[in-house]
Design goal:
This protein has two domains: about 210 residues, Replication Fork Single-Stranded Dna Binding Protein (Replication Fork Single-Stranded DNA Binding Protein, Alpha-Beta Complex), CATH 3.90.198; about 50 residues. Helix 9 packs parallel to helix 10. Helix content is about 25%, strand content about 15%. By secondary structure, the protein is α+β, with helices and mostly antiparallel strands.
């Protein structure tokens, strides 16, 4: 899509006839800016991928099918992730579960378990999720978005695809005669609930606009989910695990490649896959920044004061964008804000941040906390 220019000509009578050549931003430019990575955590998906986050209240989605040559056996791809790794709490695809290759995190977990460090070992267990391409009926203009759902929710949705009486499979992702999925989201963090999950009783086409439907299907065929996964190599993950490699320094060895056997969950870094057609990637060069003052945040994160102004939805979106693992809910909005600041290293103005000593020795700190 080319750049769109609009001239005001004689002007709008309400503006007094001002003359100005307005250059509108394209959807691709806005999308790239909205999806740019902030913070220092590694990414496990191609950075051009647009993620779907269920809104509070009613949601209506259409699950998109896998490419016809996919061997997933499901409309989504299961992924296995390790979370909160290293001083920057990065997340990585589990190389053992996803590629059947050595994984330094799994090896460290085995060592910790043998040493009797059960809590520490448990913190490195891989988690499982399912990545699904969906169309949000409330914002179809965004096109295919990736919904990273918990294994439990995906299991519940899958059960709805089977007729309990006949055992027949409901073709919910059929682009011609599929079924929309609806649910109501309530709560936050681990207290998030998806109530009233159900498929429409009547089949419908993916879109009444055949051109739009074809564009969506062309996109998912050109960018299959398993091809957008990003893997870091063994040595890089091990360095992050030991606190030696800053996650914000993108690994040149990170690659995007299909998993040998799809498994379930989040992160990794710079993918080798080309950006999706019509979705241009904005490459941001990161330069060393000065040490932030107390109350200020580095890496483009909001300041302490800005976090205090956020409501529940904004905090949830920030946490999901930064790939935080939410605890079992919060007693108050203030507690939620405090937890987000703590997880992202955003400090309150009064007390200056303590010396950064010990950042590399994050594992020792975790052991003390769990001992």
């Amino acid at each position: 899509m080319g750049m769109i220019r609009k001239k005001t000509g004689a002007g709008n009578p309400r503006t007094g006839g001002v003359k100005f050549e307005y250059r509108a931003r394209t959807p691709e430019q806005v999308r790239a800016l909205a999806q740019r990575q902030i913070g220092g955590r590694d990414s496990y998906f191609d950075k051009s991928i647009v993620f779907f986050t269920a809104r509070e209240g009613d949601n209506v989605l259409r699950i998109l099918p896998p490419p016809s040559d996919a061997e997933w056996g499901h409309y989504g791809v299961n992924i296995a992730m390790h979370y909160d790794i290293g001083p920057d709490k990065s997340a990585f695809l589990c190389r053992e579960k996803m590629l059947q290759e050595p994984c330094p995190i799994c090896e460290e977990r085995i060592r910790a378990s043998a040493a009797g460090e059960d809590d520490f070992a448990d913190s490195m267990k891989p988690g499982f999720r399912t990545a699904i391409y969906v169309i949000d009926r409330n914002q179809e203009g965004k096109g295919p978005m990736l919904w990273n759902v918990s294994g439990g929710l995906d299991k519940d949705i899958t059960k709805l695809c089977i007729d309990p009486g006949t055992g027949e499979v409901l073709p919910v992702d059929d682009p011609n005669d599929g079924y929309d999925l609806s649910f109501v989201r309530t709560g936050q963090g681990l207290k998030t609930k998806y109530d009233g999950v159900q498929f429409s009783r009547k089949p419908s086409p993916l879109s009444d606009d055949n051109d739009a439907a074809q564009q969506w299907l062309d996109y998912i065929v050109a960018h299959p989910i398993d091809g957008c996964l990003v893997y870091h190599d063994y040595d890089y993950i091990k360095k992050v695990l030991e606190g030696q490699a800053p996650a914000e320094q993108e690994s040149e060895t990170a690659t995007a490649k299909p998993a040998a056997k799809p498994a379930a969950r989040k992160p990794a870094a710079t993918p080798a896959a080309a950006p999706p057609a019509g979705r241009k990637k904005l490459l941001i060069k990161k330069t060393p920044a000065a040490e932030p003052e107390a109350g200020e945040a580095a890496d483009g994160l909001p300041s302490f004061e800005e976090v205090q102004q956020m409501d529940e939805d904004m905090l949830t979106s920030l946490g999901e964008e930064q790939e935080l693992e939410f605890p079992e809910g919060f007693d108050s909005l203030e507690a939620f804000r405090e937890w987000v600041c703590e997880q992202l290293g955003i400090e309150a103005p009064p007390p200056p941040a303590p010396a950064a000593a010990g950042k590399a020795d994050w594992r020792a700190k975790l052991r003390k906390q769990t001992s």
